[in-house]
Amino acid sequence: MLGLEGKRALVTGAGTAGIGAAAARALAAAGVRVAVHHLAQPEAAAALAAECGGVALQADLAEPGAAARLPHEAAAALGGLDILVANAAVLLRKPLADTTEAEFSRVHQVNLVAPFALAREAAGIMRAAGTGGRIVITSSVNQWMPNPGLVAYGSAKAGIGGLVRQLALELAAEGITVNGIAPGTILTEINRARHDDPDWIAAKLALIPANRLGRPEDVAGAVVFLASALASYVTGTTLTVDGGLSLMGSRA
Can you name the CATH fold of 8-251? Predict the structure, then answer.
């Protein structure tokens, strides 16, 4: 029913124990061979790639041109590319007054420009193959919900929402769907330092109607759905995976 057996995917930002790694494992469990992108985790990425029947690829997406190379490297290693999961991101928590132009630009380069370049090149590969494809881009509930100290991160994620819709419009006729996923508070490496802070946990739980923090696997399930045949008529949308956090409006 999923129609994923034998497909080939590139998942970026899968070198740490977070959403990317969970998505790679979930896709592999559905029969997908996965190229695992990492920044500086060669051993973990190699182990995950072996687990997923694929290959590990290293790139610093803050470097111009790095993102554009990745889909081609993945396609060369896997014999084609059917699925792109553009998940890699960086988080900067700084007040507006302390955020430099260089910091703002780097966050946008990794979180918005890189997904654009990844999608452009992946779409070209899928178009040439003539068999359609799936592009899934990880956004955040912060694309709609501003929070203090996230001027760079939040604005980049807001850009993802527009990027998804624009790409979807241009690629729909070629059988390539493009969708976003907006996670809420997920226990990943980005916030690992706070995992054992009971005050932080309590404050987050007070804002989440589901009364639990998210797990990477929660987001991975959404990735598999959007990459599968079940979502062949779903494009240009952003699926929120947040336990109801965004229902709380500005309080979150």
Answer: Rossmann fold (3.40.50)
